[in-house]
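idk why but the lab printer keeps eating my pages so im just putting this in chat instead. protein + magnesium ion:
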Amino acid sequence: MAEKTRKFKTEVQHLLDLMIHSLYSNKDIFLRELVANAADAIDKARFAALTDSTLNREWQIKIEQNKDAKTLTISDNGIGMTADEVVENIGTIAKSGTKAFLKQLEESQTPLNEMPELIGQFGVGFYSAFMVAEEVELISKRAGSNEPAVCWTSKGQENYTLEEATRDDQGTTIILHLKTDAELYLEPWKVTEIVHRYSDFIEYPIILPTVKKNDDNTETIEEKILNSQKAIWLRNASEITDEEHQSFYAHLSHGGKLLKPLHIAAEGTSEFKALLYIPEKLPFNLFMPDLQKKGLQLYVRRVFITDECKDLVPDYLRFIKGVVDSSDLPLNVSREILQENPQIMKIQKAIVAKVLSELKKLQEKEPEKYLLFYQECGKILKEGIHTDFQNQDKIKELAMYESMNSEAGKLISLREYVAAMPSSQQDIYYITAENRTTALASPALEIYRSKGYDVLLMTDPIDEWVMQSMFQYDKKHFKSVAKGELELDADSKKELENMVEAAAETHKSLVEYLAKELENNVKEVRFSGRLTESACCLVADEQGLSAHMERFFKAMNQEIPAGKRILELNPKHPLVEAMQKLYDQDPQSAQLKEYAGLLYDQALLTEGSQIADPGLFAKRIADLMVAGLKN
Ligand code: ADP
Ligand code: MG
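predcted complex ->
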């Protein structure tokens, strides 16, 4: 073959122009790209070697630095290329991502030097060599072919030349004649660092020969393998030891404790491998979002892309750490592309399904282990009930709560709650509160206690928010015991309604008096069947905020949406009778006025809220005590 000079296709010229003339924010990636190409070529040769026994199988990638010639050489013994293949592969741009990128650039009409960041986010394959080289030579010999080797050279302008070359072994050698500002890449430490960062898990050895001076002034060449070649996620699940998992997880999570590894090997519409970890203890920084790397590590065919691919897991699974290695994604994915990438979305879907089903298994088969996990991560996982409607039902199964009828610290699932419901009970009852003690002190629980119903105690700050989307479980509605009308089975309901109606009739004047007296604090005073022991309580109407939510807003320094609550009185409580008597004797009674205030304050105290004037409250109590002792 005589030497031939050819012109690049215009789109290639365009790309080259970009590479050479724009400020590239991260030149290092050229080595990542060339090493990745070498590994791809070996993958192909390894496949061909299955049927061709003549091929060399001592797979390796070699990086050589020549300080005198100012060249950096990357060679592989992979599949290699024929002359035609070189023209086909190196002379055109086939990658859709790059094409789309070029189109976007053209359309935006932004001067190139104003968008170095955008360009910097694109790995752009072979041509990235021109960021650091003024001339690139590529010598290649196709494995298993009789064609002579070919040499391709270009200075990255309009043209390239092709001529015959000599090379005995299969594979490709790329010689970069470095620009003066790229001589850093002649330093062994620099190349070592880049390979560690981007190509550590490539499964073929990446060798850097280094010259070692001996004591007698002779030199020997040492061949150092730069990469660990340990792609733990590509190994058979059964071959990985617990220690290996723990140490890899520690590396990923910066010190978390591991509960269980999950392996995913997906084939079909989306091909990827993933090694994910369910934590037992969270690294502390999960709650300090700025310090936390978000998402999973993403590799494409063992080449490192990013250690925070957020889109691989939804927010509510952010406690999951791990690695995804995709076979479908192009290497030149940018952060922008990752965001809407349909492949990424497919992977996310598969990951969510796997994580949720594994958690379910854990919950059923190893409940103690599951509880360890849930106590750490439950409050994060529950967010999914509110944010992932598609998987809401599965996440509800995983949610666990304390309950009024179970001992402190014991968590039950909704399934367990429903299974224990007496036949007369229609709905699932819950109360939100700061902690178990405040929840249990709530007078709103009394009626349920007396009926033998259980009430879920929701004590995570996130619960109230989550409950906005928790409408039903197993066709049963969720009802806050501190909200809305009381709903009970038909018989009890009638009975209670009658009692409430009768009391409202008998004590009409007292109720009106209290409503007037407390009009700044409550929007209504009424009787209710909710209470069996306490004299009174405060409830929100169906749309209103519960006491817990009000405190939550206050703690967040947020304005509390206006809206007063309802003071409910217990028709069976002797206090009602006594106050009525006082009112009938003297509607202007100063004592009655004080009692009205006390009534409201005790409603606040029992639900765990603060009273406006503790001093006044204490004085009133003291007066009462004195009066009581005198009698
Ligand atoms: P990509 O790797 O995404 O296809 P590149 O620009 O990196 O894009 O490479 C273009 C093509 O050139 C590759 O698809 C491959 O066919 C060929 N190629 C590049 N480097 C080598 C190599 N070392 N050995 C064999 N073929 C190669
Ligand atoms: Mg490539």
